[in-house]
Specification:
By secondary structure, the protein is of the alpha+beta class. The chain has a domain of 108 residues. The protein is built from 23 helices and twelve strands.
Length: 514
């Protein structure tokens, strides 16, 4: 084993070894300080010692779903609040509707959402400082983009059809087996980019791959960047993590399209004839100053790919697995979709009449959404909850979604069971709008709550319902064994098992469900 003198000699002759050891020491000291500062006097699930708490952090990393459910079961109605350790800080989790509602109502200068997301994803260094400082894309998503979904729907269904046809090519009665996560991410990226940048770029395989890779780059880049001191983060983001290279290449792809649109605007005015209706156009209309540069517009398009890739494709992967392993629901869903499409054609309004379809998608998100937690906040100043719990500045606070979604007091005796048409029955019982898949509230938390609820949820749900409806009309689906491998967890993120595959067969009109 190397002694101290040998270690010092190695550091002198190999500066990178010294730098690595210094970084490791810095990260350990920083993590300890942050953990100490984020200490909250509430019950902890797992060990709390300076070193033993890392055992709890490891369990949270590997089995976050079990940790969260265990805490929910233990503290629901028994204080309704507890904390868990991750590798960098303590996280406070709340279980009751009263405390989650209190989080929703807290002023933004007390419990911040954007600041929490920026810290978690290191947005300044992964997506760029302008994305962190100027979120002008958010009101665009809420207003122009969402209002245009009806006009965009012909493009959406056209791209869904094209993407599925390109990805799934069975012949005759042949079954084709595809990786769920890989196939869904590719198809979702294509369809999403049809509404972001239009044809032909949405079908450029390299560009589509960039958007998918960017999602991974941001997640990995955030984890790496958090390890470094502030004065090194910029260097790391530029030369160590791959986000900068992906952004540069995406800009090269987008540049001709952006220049062409600017030329058309200069020649014919802002609202020129045949102006594309897509997110890029909305960005260009609203951008000012430095945001008008192609590189900055490209960053926003990549950011939209990140949101789509990190939530919609994961959620729809779960939807696909549910429908492939539960053939008893295919016939009623297919019957509903076929009847509505025969009457109205493929329109957004037609899908809005498919209540069973909407309920199926919502039930999938209830039991297996993209994550077990919701409504991320960070305390921007010291804060005391109504139950007397003191939350110091810098503390991360989140509501537990999965626990509430499986709570018999919230969803009845069958709360842990998959009931495909649960929300259709709730609609029929009253409060129709409350039970739409896009609706948010204390008892349904995949999209968050309050004014910071996901502004893109209308788009995400429309994409998932359109893709599911298209599959029902055109394919039979199943898995080889009738079951699927369980999902995997990264902290509390619920991901489809990488080994999960679904089999497709081109459907003949009137063919039985296989």
């Amino acid at each position: 084993m190397m002694d101290l003198n040998q270690l010092l000699a190695t550091c002198q002759s190999h500066p990178w070894v010294a730098a690595s050891l210094a970084l490791l020491l810095y990260s350990a000291v920083k993590a300890y300080i942050v953990r100490w500062k984020s200490w909250v006097d509430v019950p902890a699930l797992g060990p709390t010692g300076p070193l033993t708490s890392y055992l709890g952090a490891y369990r949270y990393f590997r089995h976050g779903d079990q940790v969260v459910q265990e805490g929910y079961d233990k503290y629901r109605g028994n204080g309704d609040i507890f904390k868990v350790a991750d590798f960098s800080r303590w996280i406070v989790l709340v279980t009751s509707s009263e405390l989650i509602d209190e989080m929703k109502r807290a002023p933004d200068d007390v419990l911040g959402f954007s600041e929490a997301a920026d810290e978690l994803l290191q947005v300044e260094y992964t997506m760029g400082p302008n994305v962190a400082e100027n979120q002008y894309h958010v009101p665009i998503i809420r207003s122009n983009f969402t209002r245009s979904l009806t006009a965009l729907f012909p493009d959406i269904i056209d791209e869904v059809s094209s993407a599925f046809s390109d990805k799934i090519r069975p012949g005759g009665d042949e079954w084709v087996s595809l990786s769920v996560m890989n196939s869904v991410s590719q198809i979702t990226a294509r369809v999403a980019n049809r509404t972001f940048v239009g044809l032909p770029l949405c079908r450029d395989q390299e560009f589509v791959e960039m958007g998918i890779r960017y999602t991974l780059d941001v997640v990995m880049g955030a984890e790496i960047t958090r390890m470094f001191p502030v004065f090194l983060k910029g260097i790391v983001s530029r030369f160590v993590i791959p986000v900068a290279a992906t952004t540069k290449r995406a800009c090269e792809k987008l540049l001709p399209e952006i220049q062409s649109r600017y030329e058309a605007m200069d020649a014919n005015g802002k609202h020129y004839e045949e102006k594309p209706v897509d997110f890029l156009s909305f960005l260009m209309d609203e951008a000012t100053g430095v945001e008008k540069k192609p590189e900055e517009l490209s960053r926003r398009i990549l950011m939209m790919n990140f949101v789509s890739g990190s939530t919609t494709s994961i959620s729809f992967s779960h939807v696909l697995i549910f429908i492939a392993t539960m053939p008893q629901f295919v016939a009623p869903l297919r019957e509903e979709v076929e009847a509505v499409i025969a009457e109205e054609g493929w329109t957004r309004a037609a899908l809005g009449r498919c209540h069973k379809l909407d309920s199926f998608v919502k039930e999938c998100m209830r039991l297996r959404g993209a994550g077990d937690l919701s409504s991320l906040r960070i305390a921007l100043k010291d804060f005391t909850l109504s139950n007397g719990t003191f939350i110091p500045k810098g503390t991360f606070v989140q509501g537990i979604a999965a626990g509430r979604h499986k709570d018999p007091e919230v969803y009845g005796a069958n709360a842990t069971e998959f009931d495909a048409f649960r929300f259709e029955k709730m609609r029929e019982a009253g409060e129709v709008t409350k039970h739409h898949a896009v609706s948010v509230g204390i008892d349904f938390l995949p999209f968050g709550i309050g004014k910071h609820a996901c502004p893109g949820r209308f788009f995400a749900v429309l994409l998932m319902k359109t893709m599911l409806a298209y599959i029902l009309i055109n394919y039979d689906v199943k898995t080889a064994t009738g079951t699927a491998p369980p999902p995997v967890y990264f902290n509390t993120s619920c991901l489809p098992n990488p080994s999960a595959e679904v089999m497709f067969r081109r459907r003949k009109k009137g063919s039985p469900v296989a």
